[in-house]
Design brief:
By secondary structure, the protein is of the alpha+beta class. 32% of the residues lie in helices and 23% in strands. The protein has two domains: 166 residues, Aminopeptidase (3-Layer(aba) Sandwich); 124 residues, Alpha-Beta Plaits (2-Layer Sandwich), CATH 3.30.70.
Length: 398
């Protein structure tokens, strides 16, 4: 592989926004570019069709008795809106103060190229490396991976031969301290819509007679959190895995303080719930967030209407042991119970995903039946990172 930075820049230039059909060409370009990169370093690539964006399934298989690792990533990115808030064009990568900026730099094109570049160098030095490698690169991660369950069912026998999977969708704080991510939070994504009158109404004529959908929406949303910031949905925290002492000790090694984190985000204060510190809350706690709220007149000036409908986009980030199906049902039931009779509630399912959590060997909560291959992978990562970076990795949930 040529200069990985230049390769990454070219990859970023493809506007691969999976949620918007207007970016279909960018999705195709990113997919084809990733395919070429994999083929250049010796992989056989199969483009697996889906109802939306195809999945890349690439193999370098030698002896079936060799260890087998699957590397996962995705080629789609989040929308770059609002564009006016970007210092530079989001899909034209720019280097400033030693950092590369552009949509997808960190999520997920950068990590993907890091692993490809590392493999390229290793395979150049050791073309007969006794390791089977499979890449799975999807194009729908940013919209909830709707095609992945069917894909895994379709290729279950082939993928089940692997010893473990490496998720190429995480990061480290700097080049001096490497973090191995042991958990990724799960997701419940939904949109609720409240409908009142059949059309917008003049508030001077009809105000006081009908329930304003925006008012009803704000009242419902305001009940979903307690004053301390915790989620006010019955049963939401019932199955949450506790934070273990060894995890808090690992977090103490993380090269960031609460104050540096606050300064980076430029917020006046933090608002963590359930007794967690801000740095703990983003790793160990589940959340309920409002990602977008709308309804009524949004233009300049005033328009004195009672809107016919209002909506809220809501996501929950879940931690280990929380069942997204259960959480989705609990949240929807709570919203239904708190919805006033003067409006009609509808619901759009935006998808769900389970939280992912693995524990390094020799920890108090390491599963007794942890596969030997996974334990070997942890120990190999420990040794390799200590050798190349001069210190052991930190193991943290994300």
């Amino acid at each position: 592989m040529q200069n990985p930075i230049e390769v990454l820049k070219e990859y970023i230039r493809f506007p691969s926004v999976s949620t918007d059909p207007a970016y279909a060409e960018g999705m195709q370009g990113a997919r084809e570019y990733a395919t070429r990169l994999l083929e250049e370093i010796g992989f056989t690539v199969e483009v697996v069709p889906t109802d939306l964006h195809p999945i890349l399934l690439a193999d370098r298989i030698g002896n079936p008795d060799w260890p087998h690792v699957v590397i996962y990533g995705h080629y789609d990115v989040q929308p770059a809106d609002p564009f006016e808030l970007w210092t530079d064009e989001p899909f034209e990568p720019t280097v400033r103060n030693g950092r590369l900026y552009g949509r997808g730099t960190a999520d997920n094109k950068g990590p993907t190229i890091v692993h490809m570049a590392a493999l390229s160098r290793v395979l150049q030095a050791k073309p007969d490396l006794p390791l089977n490698i499979t890449y799975v690169i999807e194009g729908e991660e940013e919209i909830g991976s709707p095609s992945m369950p069917k894909f895994f069912d379709q290729y279950a026998e082939r993928l089940s031969q692997a010893d473990f999977m490496l998720v190429s969708d995480t990061g480290s704080p700097n080049t001096e301290q490497i973090v191995i991510t042991t958990a990724l939070r799960g997701l419940v994504d939904m949109e609720i819509k409240l409908r009142g009158p059949k059309s917008d109404l003049h508030s001077g004529i009809h105000g006081g007679a009908v329930y304003n959908p925006l008012q009803a929406l704000m009242e419902i949303c305001a009940t979903l959190h307690n004053p301390d910031g915790s989620v006010n949905v019955p049963g939401f925290y019932d199955d949450v895995v506790p934070v273990f002492d060894w995890e808090r000790e690992e977090l103490k090694r993380y090269p960031e303080t609460v104050e540096s984190y606050r300064a980076m985000l430029d917020v006046p204060a933090f608002y963590p719930a359930n007794g967690l510190s801000p740095l703990e809350a983003v790793r160990f706690g589940p959340t309920l967030e409002f990602n977008g709220i709308g309804g009524g007149y949004q233009g300049e000036g005033s328009k004195t209407v009672i809107p016919s409908e209002a909506f809220a986009k809501i996501t929950c980030r879940l931690v280990a042991n929380q069942d997204p199906v259960k959480i989705q049902a609990q949240l929807l039931q709570t919203i239904r119970e708190r919805c006033p009779k003067g409006v009609t509630l509808s619901f759009r399912d935006g998808g769900i995903a389970e939280a992912y959590y693995v524990v390094p060997p020799e920890r108090p909560n390491t599963p007794a039946d942890q596969p030997a291959s996974l334990a070997r992978a942890f120990k190999a990562a420990d040794a390799a990172i200590a050798d190349q970076f001069g210190k052991a990795p930190i193991y943290l949930r994300e």
